[in-house]
Every structure is written in C-alpha cells, then in structure tokens.
Amino acid sequence: MLFSSMTFIYMFLPILCLIYFLSKKEFHNTILLIASLIFYAWGEPKYLAIMLLTIIINYYGAIFIEKYPKYKKQILTLTIITNLGFLIYFKYFNFIFETINNVLNAHIDLLEIIMPLGISFYTFQSISYIVDVYRNETKAQKDIYKLALFICLFPQLIAGPIVKYHDINNQIENRDVTFEKVSEGVKRFIVGLSKKMLIANTMGAIADKIFILSPENFNFIIAWLGAISYSLQLYFDFSGYSDMAIGLGLMFGFRFKENFNYPYISKSLTEFWRRWHISLSTWFKEYVYIPLGGNRKGEIKTIRNLAIVFLFTGIWHGAAWNFIFWGILNGFIIILEKLFKINTKDVPLNKNNIVVNFIKHLYTIISFLLLWVIFRSENMTYAIKYIMNMFGLIKTNTINSNIFNYINNFDIFILIIAIISSTPLLMNKIQKYENNKIVKCILNLTLIIFLILSTSKIANSTYNPFIYFRF
Q1: Rounded to an integer, what distance in angstroms lies between the CA atom of residue 375 and that of residue 327?
Q2: How many structural domains does the chain have?
Q3: Could you give the 3-state DSSP secondary structure of residue 187?
Q4: What is the separation, in whole angstroms, between the first and last Cα of the chain?
C-alpha cells in the first residue's frame, strides 16, 4: 500500500485513526501491529512470512544473548548472518551469479526473484536491535508483539527512516497521543505528500524524458537539466516520504528522528552526508564505522573504515555496479576532503570569505549532481557518456536539443519552487512568523489547498511509487 494512494489516505488511515483514538491506551500497540501487518500484506502477502520469520529470529536471538552470555558473540554473529542472508538472497543473489557468469563465462541459471518491499530497512532495524542487546544498551524485549511492532511499524516500514531500537523502545512501552502531536503529524504528512506529488513527480517527468535517451541525442544544456531535475526529484521524493512517515508517527504518539536537513546547501560532501538520509548515515556510523575503530586508530585505518562504510552504502542501495561505483566515489571524495582538511563550516562573512563559501558550495553541488547521474543511470557506460555530455566532451546531434521539448512554463515554475524549497530560506521565514494568527490561518489554508492538489494528482495517475521502494 502506498502513502500516496487514495486507498491509504481516504480509507486505511481514517479507519485506523478512528479505531486507535477511540480505543484504550493498552490496546494501542496491538491495533498498530495489526494495522502494520495489513499494510504490508496489502500488496505482498506472500512476503509477510519473511518479515515474521525475521521477527522470530531476532526475538529469540536477543533472549539467548542474555541467557547465555558466554556464547553471546556466536549468537550475535549467527543472528546477523541470518538477517543478512534473507537480504542477500532476495536483493543480491542474481547480481552475484550474473557477475560470475560475465567474469568466468559461466552459465549459471538465474532465479526469478522479486525483492520484498522494505527488506533493506527492516533488516537494518533488526540488526540495530540485536546489537543493542549485545552491547547491553537495552534489554531483550520479552514481549514478541512489541518487538514485532518495532520491526514492522507501518509508517517507516517500506522506506525508512531507519529507526534504531534504542531510540524508540521507551516509546513502544509508553507514549502519549495528544492533540498537538496529531495536529503536527497531519500537517507534516500533507507537506510530505505535497513534496511527492507536486514537486518530485513533476521533476521526475522531466528527468525521465531525458534519461530515456542516449546521451549523444541531446546537448549539454539538456544534460544539465536532466541531472538537476533528477536531483530535485530524488530529494523531494525521499524527504517527502520521510516527512509522511514522521507525520504518521506523530499521529500515533511516536517521535522519529529527522532524516533530512537541507543537504543541498552543504559546502562539502562530508557535510552533505551529515544532512542526507541521516538515519542511514548514523546507522553505518554506529554499527559499522565505530566498531571498525572509527577515527581512533590512526589516519590509515580511518581512511580504510570510511572506504568500507561507503562501499557498503553503495551496495545497500542496489544490486548493480553503478550503485557500487557511486558508493566508492562518495567515499573517495570524502577521504580526499578529510586528507585536505576541507572545512565544512561557514567562515565569518567578509568579501573574501563569501567567495570561498560560494566556491565550496558550487564544488559540492557539482559533485552530488555528477554522483546522482551515476545513481540514476542504468549502467556505468551510460553514466560516463552522460557526464561527458555535461562537459561537452562527446559529439551530439541537435535533433532532441530543444529544451522546451522537456520542460514547459509550469515545470519551470515548479523547478524554481523546488530549488527555493531545497534551502531553509522559506522555512526560516515561516518559523519567524508562525505564531502570528493571520500567518497561521494562511499556512493552514495553504496546506488544505496542497492536500486538494495532491489528491487531484493522485486521482489522475495510476501508480505513484517512491524511488526508495526499490532499495
């Protein structure tokens, strides 16, 4: 089931809210668990068994870690391998053997495997739980239904944010549902829905028109338009989902951590990764980077640890070489920034420093635009040709180089809104006057209009998947 569907917005969610708000507090977890299982099984009932098996394995794994401390390392290892085993089979099996076929000229038959939605996210959440118990940062959850709720809680089940157990275990045990939380949650949900339907989908339509063509068939201006459009689509699609998930969490009493903090205003790629998909970055930091030694064992091992983390980041995003190279290149640039001690903070404003900050910001924009081209491309050959086109390094024809074949006046308007909204300028202005009663009324009216426009978009389209569903 999609958040951006009429079924979810006008049937599933209202019915769930009615039942939840009218029920006693002691039934809230049970209601949410049942709703989450229905939500997941709605589109993929056959894969519900995999998630339930994941819950059972981690439930007993944590209990055995506490019960048999002498063997807790072995139990932890076995539980993590089992978690990753499901992920590797469904997400990487065919990629691994396809690579073997290509390298060794083998003829291993590939399987028809469809990856269960959300498996990358709930696998990482499960690992966070078992590791937290192993580290004695939390107690093993003796109530399997509460652990099940943590793993399959529907707001963040399919595409995050990745919620770590130690961040939410107290809220599972005890939380309050207040009018303020519900109101804030509804507003946040509408903002996320609007990001998805009004901005991300518009930018995505432009990007799709361009990336479907061979890079030789349009000029460098179109190439830059495609890269910018896709970058904006990806940001508003994924941050929109995160907003909706955080909003839904608030409606049911949960406070999830933020997943985005205006990454496109960054002045280095290091800063970018502190602002982009924060839940994934912090997960890798807590469960991979720090256990490897972090930055505590000298510069060489710090570089090694960063390289491993970003290799894993690329692999996590998809079973294809372009994702792996994308992760490696992110890590390579961040390592260079570390070696050359590129400062990610603003320096005091003066004539010279404004120029320095602008250059740093421009460098970062160009870096992530090029990296997103690799991320979006079907293969590395296409990505290299596309990037060469952006810098005028390949010969192109002019058949498809009329920019208005790809973008109209309305699209230009949305593009401008998207660029402005990807910075904190607008939000800073809103927060400055948000306590003003007139401004409050205008903002609430605007949200209602956004909801109507988004609903209209949903009604006129057949399918609105989020980009990160494929990861």
Answers
A1: 9
A2: 2
A3: helix
A4: 16
Spatial separation of the C-alpha atoms in residues 398 and 58, rounded to whole Å: 57
- pLDDT, residue 470, reads 65
Q: Exposure of 328 by Cβ count < 10 A (0-12 exposed, 13-18 middle, 19+ buried)? A: middle
Distance (Å, rounded) from C-alpha 31 to C-alpha 189? Answer: 20
- Same domain, residue pair 89 and 67: yes
The tokens describing 300, both together, are 């060489």
The residue out of 175, 194, 221 marking a domain boundary is 175
Report d(CA 159, CA 175) in Å as an integer: 23
User: Does 10 score more than 60 pLDDT?
Assistant: yes
pLDDT in tens, 56-88: 999 999 999 999 999 999 999 999 999 999 999
Position 267 confidence tier, pLDDT thresholds 50, 70, 90: very high
Residues with catalytic function: 317
Domain that holds residue 437: 181-267+346-470
DSSP 325-350: HHHHHHHHHHHHHHHTT---SPPPPS
In a domain, 305, yes or no: no
Contact 20, 31 (CB under 8 A): yes
DSSP 66-121: HH-GGGHHHHHHHHHHHHHHHHIIIIIHHHHHHHHHHHHT--PPPP---PPTTHHH
Angle 288-142-22 (CA atoms, 0-180°, nearest 5)?
105
Q: Helix 48-67 and helix 144-152: axis angle, to 10°?
A: 130
**Rounded Cα distance, 333 and 270, in Å:** 8
How far apart CA 342 and CA 448 sit, in angstroms, is 44
